[in-house]
């Protein structure tokens, strides 16, 4: 379950490239684009600009390079030409990338145009919850510490955490052991060891935590129709703390702001 230094270097390279995909998206006005247009743009960027492989295409029979989850869609939204992003929407774009046999996984919820305070607060709180989960990672801490930190922050802000989907180990395969739950008890579960690589990807709902899958077999929505947001990073346990492999340029100061040991 732990990676060797050479594998960690390759995972870091995949993570750096995937971060650059989000930096490209950060520069793109998404309003008026269909989620299929975004998918096609991201595929061109990964394949032609980065000379890498979109890892989700073909995995489990999926036909796209990203999941696009708008508003009450929790995760696994499928790109579509009829899904045109409107002023005030929130949309999670979840992307995986493989380079030299190693995979990185990250997602970010974007604000489309002008989003009202209700949506902005959910998105901001979800981002904070991800970073509180990251902050719980260091050698000797345990898996339950991540989930506890995330769910505590969500509940303090009146949100619920989706339980059905979790983070995961990652490497040559997109989904490896262990599972990373976004709820839990501190001091319980597997202890972290240097060289473990996994994702943390909390989904927070404004309403109840229960979800259902739509008839297409992919799209997961909140049962009560409430807004849902998600953020995800791929992280590696270091000798003294944690390294965020998919860290973007705009997040360079997060480690120091959150007082996280590298
Ligand atoms: Mg993932």
Brief characterization of the structure:
The chain is of the alpha+beta class and 262 residues long. Helices cover 28% and strands 24% of the residues. Strand 4 (90-99) and strand 5 (102-111) form a beta hairpin.
What does it look like?
- The chain has helices at residues 5-26, 35-49, 117-135, 143-156, 254-257; strands at residues 53-54, 66-70, 73-75, 90-99, 102-111, 160-161, 167-169, 176-180, 197-200, 203-205, 211-213, 220-222, 228-230, 233-237, 242-244.
- The chain has 262 residues and is an alpha+beta fold.
- Helices cover 28% and strands 24% of the residues.
- The mean pLDDT is 97.
- It starts with a helix and ends in a 5-residue tail after the last helix.
- The strands form five sheets. Strands 1, 2, 4 and 5 form a four-stranded antiparallel β-sheet that branches.
- The structure holds magnesium ion.
Summarize the helices and strands and which ones pair or pack.
Layout: H1 5-26, H2 35-49, E1 53-54, E2 66-70, E3 73-75, E4 90-99, E5 102-111, H3 117-135, H4 143-156, E6 160-161, E7 167-169, E8 176-180, E9 197-200, E10 203-205, E11 211-213, E12 220-222, E13 228-230, E14 233-237, E15 242-244, H5 254-257
Antiparallel strand pairs: 1-4, 2-4, 3-12, 4-5, 6-10, 7-8, 9-14, 10-13, 11-12, 14-15
This protein binds magnesium ion.
Which spans of ≥5 residues are poorly predicted at pLDDT below 50? Answer: none
Mean pLDDT: 97
Specify the helix fraction band: 25-40%
Structural class based on helices, strands and sheet pairing: alpha+beta
Intertermini distance: 20 Å
Shape, principal axes of CA atoms? globular
């Amino acid at each position: 379950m732990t990676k060797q230094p050479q594998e960690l270097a390759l995972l870091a390279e995949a993570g750096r490239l995937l971060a650059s995909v989000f930096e490209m998206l950060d520069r793109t006005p998404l309003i008026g684009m269909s989620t299929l247009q975004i998918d096609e743009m991201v595929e061109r960027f990964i394949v032609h600009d980065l000379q890498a492989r979109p890892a989700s295409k073909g995995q489990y029979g999926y036909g796209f390079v990203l999941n696009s989850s708008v508003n009450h869609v929790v995760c696994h939204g499928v790109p579509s030409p009829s899904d045109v992003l409107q002023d005030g929407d929130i949309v999670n774009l979840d992307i995986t990338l493989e380079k030299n046999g190693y995979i990185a996984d990250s997602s970010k919820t974007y604000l489309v145009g002008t989003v009202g305070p209700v949506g902005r607060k959910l998105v901001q709180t979800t981002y904070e919850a991800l970073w509180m989960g990251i902050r719980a990672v260091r050698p000797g801490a345990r898996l339950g510490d991540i989930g506890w930190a995330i769910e505590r922050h969500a509940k303090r802000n009146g949100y619920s955490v989706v339980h059905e989907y979790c983070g995961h180990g990652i490497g040559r395969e997109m989904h490896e052991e262990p599972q990373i739950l976004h709820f839990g008890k501190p001091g319980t579960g597997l202890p972290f060891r240097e060289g473990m690589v996994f994702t943390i990807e909390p989904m927070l709902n404004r309403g109840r935590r229960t979800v259902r899958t739509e008839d297409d077999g992919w799209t997961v929505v909140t049962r009560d129709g409430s807004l849902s947001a998600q953020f995800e990073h791929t992280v590696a346990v270091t000798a003294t703390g944690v390294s965020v492999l998919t860290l973007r340029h705009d997040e360079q100061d997060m480690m120091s702001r959150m007082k996280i040991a590298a």
